[in-house]
Design goal:
- The chain has two helices and three strands, in the order H-E-E-E-H.
- The two termini are about 25 Å apart.
- It is α+β, with helices and mostly antiparallel strands.
- Strands 1-2-3 form a three-stranded antiparallel β-sheet.
Length: about 80
């Protein structure tokens, strides 16, 4: 689904892991990447959220730094499906 920028996202996932040493506590949460335009993957984030609408990601973060992220519209890797 993100074929135009998938290479860039893969590079970010790689380089961010190389640039940060994780602390003893991390958090897993959702993030919204604001987006203008039309897309079937765009998610409404509620009328009271300041960010508005955009693409949803599940992210692993440490002290405000995004360590890794996965867009919810990406297919799940087969290795994770096999693990249940």
């Amino acid at each position: 689904p993100n074929f135009k920028v998938n290479e860039f996202f893969n590079w970010l996932r790689y380089i961010w892991k190389e640039a940060w040493e994780m602390g003893p506590t991390v958090s897993a949460d959702e993030q919204t990447c604001s987006m203008q335009g039309k897309s079937q993957y765009k998610t409404r984030c509620g009328k009271y959220k300041r960010i508005g609408d955009g693409l949803q990601t599940d992210a692993i973060a440490d002290d405000g730094y995004t360590y890794d992220f996965y867009f919810r519209n990406e297919p799940v890797a087969k290795k994770w499906i096999s693990l249940g």
